[in-house]
Amino acid sequence: MLLNLKPFNSFAITMMIGLSLLILFCYIFLDFPSATTSTIPISRSQSLSQLQLHPRSDPDPFQHLLGAFRRWDSQVGCFNFREKHVSLVEKGSNSSSLQVGNGREYQCSDLKMNHVGILIKGWTWIPDNLDNLYTCGCGLTCLWTKSSVLLDKPDALFFETTTPPSRRRSGEPLRVYMDLEAGRKRSGFEDIFISYHAKDDVQSTYAGGLYHNNRNYYLSPFKNNDTLVYWSSSRCLPQRNQLAKSILGLLSHHSFGKCLNNVGGLDMALSLYPQCAKDPNASPHWWDHLHCAMSHYKFVLAIENTYTDSYITEKLFYALDSGAVPIYFGAPNVRDFVPPHSIIDGAKFKSMEELATYVKALADDPIAYAEYHAWRRCGLLGNYGNTRAASLDTLPCRLCEAVSRRGGRDAQAF
């Protein structure tokens, strides 16, 4: 016997259509999660800093830095970055760790001389390319030279590795002494003392570009994934070596210096990155290809010889200039000298294991990694602008101003 199935079929079709419409309604208006989203959803109430500390759960070991920037632009952007650091935007940068920008500027009326000559004495780390005739603020001109022929009657004598004369008579040049080493010490015979610390007479940071300014500054837009960290050190201090070994043992790395070398010898960077050679026909120097080689890595390990306030050397600033993210161990007040969210301060982690875990997660999160470069792309330097302004690059004019304020040879002798 045949059954009449038409009513049943009509009812089933009606139910299927109704169910489909219900599912479509829920999908559109109730915002069901997509099948492509992370298995651990991020709450909308989480702050940007929380996202940085807890990178996404779906690893993306990116290689192209520009691609990471584009993703950061679309999901975060400069507006949000500036909002997070709104105090720097509204009030400007200020730090007692830096002389430039902290209210210690001087008036033109304080200058007693229109021209100052500085003669560099003895062997010094000061590069020859600093020798020049400078036009400084308030119409002051400044001759900085190592030649006594060019400057036979200097207003000040500059000493670094040699001790100034123990006595200065009236009418003689002022004595300037500089010590940029960690344990900075006055000679006891200087009239003006230069160091890396803001509380001394004249400050000079390591953030300038005049050291080895003829090197190859080509920066690679591609970052290594198989090898995350660059390190190079040829002064193998036991404490620094031990620290380096403890962190590098947990992360893939290349060590190019004499200490813990794992690339087969010195100057191997040019074998890995021949495009970094400044002159293929000349004998290479390590500094020629330094920035270029660093730029191929997502991270650069920077460890100071000594941990003391304001002692921040070229190790950190080279890493920043190369477009890598520094993993830094050193001055407790390092954040007073660098751009906002630009470095990984190793001292902030409870253990090397915790630090290594963070670095690995960051290397696989293009958006969180790009956040460490936002300062340079959004023009938010923070105190870094003042750090550069207080560097060796500007030392001639700033020292000449100090000599002029004291009157040079006419300054009272004690």
Automatic annotation (TrEMBL):
It is a single-pass type II membrane protein. GO terms for cellular component: Golgi cisterna membrane. It holds the Pfam family Glyco_transf_10. One of its GO terms (molecular function) is alpha-(1->3)-fucosyltransferase activity. Residues 224-406 form the Fucosyltransferase C-terminal domain. The keyword Glycosyltransferase applies. It comes from the Eukaryota. SUPFAM superfamilies: UDP-Glycosyltransferase/glycogen phosphorylase. GO terms for biological process: Lewis a epitope biosynthetic process. Gene3D superfamilies: Glycosyl transferase family 10, C-terminal domain. Pathway: Protein modification; protein glycosylation. Its main location: Golgi. Keywords: Glycosyltransferase, Golgi apparatus, Membrane, Transferase, Transmembrane, Transmembrane helix. It is found in: Golgi apparatus, Golgi stack membrane. Its EC number is 2.4.1.-. The chain crosses the membrane at residues 12-30. The keyword Zinc-finger does not apply. Belongs to the glycosyltransferase 10 family. This is Fucosyltransferase. It comes from Cynara cardunculus var. scolymus.
